Amino acid sequence: MSAITVYTKPTCPYCLAAKALLRSKGVAFNEISIEGDAAKTREMIERSGRRTVPQIYIGDTHVGGFDDLHALDAQGGLDTLLAATV
């Protein structure tokens, strides 16, 4: 199992963008689709405190959604976090 977890929905454009960004970094991730899965949706909300997808975790760090992931990458922090985790 990967140290990176992404909660998603199949038709979410932000989910697709987050997964593309992670793939461009060459890292594997565990995708958890919450589409139609009440238990996984509750798990995501309890874990993140948020109801929107994607919700991204790198190791024990809750990055947040795509905007947060993109901002972290733009600031140069994503590569550092990934290197420490994977």
UniProtKB/TrEMBL annotation:
Transmembrane segments: none annotated. GO terms for biological process: cell redox homeostasis. Coiled coil: none annotated. It holds the Pfam family Glutaredoxin. It comes from the Bacteria. Keywords: Cytoplasm, Disulfide bond, Electron transport, Redox-active center, Transport. Residues 4-63 form the Glutaredoxin domain. SUPFAM superfamilies: Thioredoxin-like. GO terms for molecular function: electron transfer activity; glutathione disulfide oxidoreductase activity. Has a glutathione-disulfide oxidoreductase activity in the presence of NADPH and glutathione reductase. Reduces low molecular weight disulfides and proteins. Belongs to the glutaredoxin family. This is Glutaredoxin. It comes from Paraburkholderia solisilvae. The gene is grxC_2.
